Inverse folding.
């Protein structure tokens, strides 16, 4: 036991924080003494030289430079700052030469060639468009002939007039809205409904109404069925259409005195609607769009319709307008090229 006590005292001198006690075996205490002596010899030996830090060839660092693992004192941050400084210097000097892997950048090839809007069209459209000089304005007669020649559809295309006005649609007196009866019609089959008393049903039917009568039209509207293109009503029956405003209004079918669909003479209104009476109005971009007929009409009839429409449009010029009224006129067919018209 004496030997065990002596070994324990020697261990305490070498390692003050030892966890062994006198209850441990002699072999355990002896092993702890040997470990403590080895640790002491290692601590007393001279320090080994500092390990050199391997950095990029472009960095100017010494062997005794120490870096943090992250943050502003790290090697990564130092390299990023240096790269940013070099980039700013190249930018100030106007150096636009590619950096890094230039060979990989060259493999992408030249930039794609941007095609014009006309070049992106089909070959049939391009062939038709060659007949029109984009920088020239044509007379109305010439424009109608070109419109017929450049029609680009297999069906009977609609010929449209697009007139840009110098008005402000936000002003009430400059919000152009009117009707015109085209002498040759529009070429479309128009279904006309007449919301009239029973006493007028016979006369409107003779005038060409497709649907007539108060009860007939009311039953269709109750079922939310729209089987007409124009709805004509008398002033006395207009209050009864109020509950259908949400159905008719968004579709542009609500009768309106300005469009001539509210009339005290429904027979005449039906006759005019069937003959080709159309409504036009200026849009938010101050442009009036109107289909004036079909390509099958021929240039002469299309010109007649266009002249009647332009006369009506000039008559609707607001008195408060200062400056030019009609800024430009263009003619086009369905899916066809545009043609500039002399004002």
């Amino acid at each position: 036991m004496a030997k065990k006590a002596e070994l324990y005292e020697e261990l305490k001198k070498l390692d003050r924080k030892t966890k062994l006690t006198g209850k441990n075996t002699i072999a355990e205490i002896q092993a702890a003494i040997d470990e403590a002596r080895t640790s002491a010899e290692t601590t007393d030996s001279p320090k080994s030289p500092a390990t050199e830090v391997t950095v990029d060839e472009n960095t100017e660092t010494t062997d005794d430079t120490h870096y943090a693992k992250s943050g502003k004192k790290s090697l990564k941050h130092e390299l990023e700052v240096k790269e940013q400084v070099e980039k700013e210097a190249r930018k100030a000097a106007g150096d636009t030469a590619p950096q890094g892997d230039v060979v990989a950048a060259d493999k992408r090839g030249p930039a794609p060639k941007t095609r014009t809007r006309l070049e992106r069209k089909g070959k049939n459209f391009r062939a038709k468009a060659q007949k029109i000089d984009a920088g020239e304005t044509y007379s109305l007669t010439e424009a109608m002939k070109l419109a017929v020649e450049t029609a680009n559809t297999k069906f009977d295309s609609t010929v449209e007039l697009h007139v840009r006005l110098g008005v402000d649609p936000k002003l009430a007196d400059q919000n152009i809205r009117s009707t015109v009866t085209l002498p040759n019609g529009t070429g479309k089959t128009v279904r006309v409904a007449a919301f009239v008393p029973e006493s007028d049903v016979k006369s409107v039917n003779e005038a060409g109404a497709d649907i007539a009568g108060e009860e007939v039209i009311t039953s269709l509207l109750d079922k939310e069925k729209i089987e007409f293109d124009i709805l004509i009503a008398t002033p006395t029956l207009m209050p009864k259409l109020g509950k259908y405003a949400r159905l008719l209004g968004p579709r542009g079918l609500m009768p309106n005195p300005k469009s001539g669909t509210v009339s005290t003479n429904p027979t005449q209104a039906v006759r005019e609607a069937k003959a080709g009476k159309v409504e036009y109005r200026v849009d938010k971009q101050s442009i009036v769009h109107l289909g004036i007929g079909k390509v099958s009409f021929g240039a002469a009839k299309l010109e007649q319709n266009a002249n009647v429409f332009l006369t009506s449009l000039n008559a609707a010029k607001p008195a408060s307008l200062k400056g030019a009224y009609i800024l430009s006129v263009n003619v086009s067919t369905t899916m066809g090229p545009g043609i500039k018209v002399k004002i």
